[in-house]
Write a structure and sequence with these properties.
mainly alpha
Length: 85
């Protein structure tokens, strides 16, 4: 992963830091309030389990969290652009 991030260094430098990246792309609902951790739709992100839903219950949880995130992000984008003009 280091090599990939290093190859895209110029891109990531545009945002100064992780918070800048998250704020630019309106991804605040995917991180904790202090930007110190990522909120996962399923699992805990430890890379020991499948990142994909493994059963109907997990799929429904993932689906509902995905739709909720999209709705919140769209609202955040709409609010941002209604205040810019």
């Amino acid at each position: 992963m280091y090599d990939t991030l290093k190859n895209d260094k110029d891109f990531f430098d545009l945002f100064i830091d992780f918070k800048g990246y998250v704020d630019f792309f309106f991804l605040q609902d995917l991180v904790s309030d202090d930007y110190s951790s990522v909120n996962f739709f399923i699992g805990n992100g430890d890379f020991n389990n499948s990142p994909l839903p493994c059963n109907v219950d997990e799929y429904m949880a993932w689906y509902n969290k995905s739709v909720d995130f999209i709705d919140k992000r769209n609202k955040r984008i709409e609010e941002y652009f209604s205040n810019v003009s």
